[in-house]
Amino acid sequence: MEAFYTVQGEGFYTGHAAYFIRLGGCDVGCFWCDVKESWEVDKHPQQTVEQIVAGAMEYPGRKAVITGGEPLMHNLDALTFALKENGFSVHIETSGAHPLSGHIDWVCLSPKKFKAPLPEVMKKADELKVVVYNKSDFRWAEEHAAQVSEDCHLLLQPEWSKQQEVMPLIVDYVKQNPQWNISLQTHKFMDIP
Ligand code: SF4
């Protein structure tokens, strides 16, 4: 769908320069999705792996973040191996609703209520990032935290439009449950993509 060099705005790697590769296609259907234009896979022109990697090589950063859409709707073997060959650390941002593929160094799992993550992806998550939309999401977050590995980083992130309302709840929750950290969509504050 698009690719661009920017600074990771959210999650464990907030503040790190990274080349974002946004793949078209998503069948999860979150009503608050902020990239709904990514949903239809056929709307976006295809590029070769070589073209995508050449785009990434134009910049000095060597972190590549594959996102979407739901990037695991595609087999990522060829793209991730080509990125690795060219010295990139490969990160993925996924709902976990499709099987993992490719060589991935960092799995950011952001499960969604609309399509459950697969157990195999949950076990591989390096970071569990739960979007908090309302109070009941804390219980839902804990249900997922119980299924990831022990060293998985746990993050709660306010849904952007609900920030004012849920932020105080998240702050209280993290103070009481310090195994969780807060993730903010800092790119929206910085006005960068
Ligand atoms: S999984 Fe991501 S891209 Fe897909 S609908 Fe949800 S927020 Fe949008």
TrEMBL record:
This protein's record includes keyword DNA-binding: no
UniProt-annotated binding residues for [4Fe-4S] cluster: 26, 30, 33
Listed InterPro entries: 7-CO-7-deazaguanine_synth-like, Aldolase_TIM, rSAM, rSAM_sf
Associated pathway: Purine metabolism; 7-cyano-7-deazaguanine biosynthesis
Pfam families: Radical_SAM
A GO biological process held by the record: tRNA queuosine(34) biosynthetic process
Keyword Metal-binding: yes
Chain residues that bind substrate: 7-9, 22, 67, 193
Cofactor: Mg(2+); [4Fe-4S] cluster; S-adenosyl-L-methionine
Note on how the cofactor is bound: Binds 1 [4Fe-4S] cluster. The cluster is coordinated with 3 cysteines and an exchangeable S-adenosyl-L-methionine. Binds 1 S-adenosyl-L-methionine per subunit.
GO function terms (MF aspect): 4 iron, 4 sulfur cluster binding; carbon-nitrogen lyase activity; magnesium ion binding; S-adenosyl-L-methionine binding
Listed PROSITE patterns: RADICAL_SAM
Keywords of the record: 4Fe-4S, Iron, Iron-sulfur, Lyase, Magnesium, Metal-binding, Queuosine biosynthesis, S-adenosyl-L-methionine
Catalytic activity: 6-carboxy-5,6,7,8-tetrahydropterin + H(+) = 7-carboxy-7-carbaguanine + NH4(+)
Binding site residues for S-adenosyl-L-methionine: 32-34, 69, 110-112
Entry similarity comment: Belongs to the radical SAM superfamily. 7-carboxy-7-deazaguanine synthase family.
Subunit structure comment from the entry: Homodimer.
This protein's name: 7-carboxy-7-deazaguanine synthase
Encoding gene (name): queE
